[in-house]
Amino acid sequence: MYQQMIFVNLATNDVAAAKKFFTALGYTINPQFSTDDCACVVISDTIVAMLLDKQRYADFTKKEIADSTKTSEVLICLSAESREKVDELVEKAVAAGGTATGEPQDHGHMYGRAFDDLDGHTWEVMWMDPAAVQG
Fold first, then answer.
1. 0.85 cut: is pTM over it?
2. Closest among 35, 40, 32, 49 to 117, alpha carbons compared
3. What span, in angstroms and rounded, lies between the C-alpha atoms of 39 and 42?
4. Whole-angstrom Cα distance, residue 57 to residue 72?
5. Which residues pair with 79 in a beta bridge?
6. What is the spatial distance between Cα 20 and Cα 77, in angstroms, rounded to a whole number?
7. With CB atoms 3.0 to 4.6 Å apart as the test, which of 8, 40, 74, 90 could cross-link to 33 if both were Cys?
């Protein structure tokens, strides 16, 4: 059965630092689609983040590239299998140089936190109780 994928393309100031940051979170770099100006970060079988230096990113758009430390161009939300996994990923991000952002959101059946990566892109991490989702 076909599995649709998502490729999130983000501009980065430093491809090497971005690779180091995301591997510290436990993700892998696919060398087949990575170069000096691009890192292909495999988040799951169906989610890939393409981290492109700003000059390479500009090849794909005529729009001004947002300064993600000052403006929000996207909020990326990843699911987690438990509340503990939410905390674990955010703590790994902070240890690798990222910044925890906002307050934890605890709604009982749903729990989330967020971090900014080295370039200021915001990554939310969310757990939802499967029993609440089923209805």
1. yes
2. 49
3. 10
4. 17
5. 126
6. 21
7. 40
94: three-class secondary structure by DSSP: helix
pLDDT tens-digit map of 72-127: 989 999 999 999 999 999 999 999 999 999 999 999 999 999 999 999 999 999 99
Q: DSSP for 13-39? A: S-HHHHHHHHHHTT-EE-GGG-BTTEE
Residue 60, helix vs strand vs coil = helix
Residue 94 near residue 81, CB atoms below 8 Å: no
Question: CA 115 to CA 125: how far, in whole Å?
Answer: 8
Distances from the Cα of 18 to the Cα of 2, 38, 82, 84, angstroms: 30, 10, 26, 24
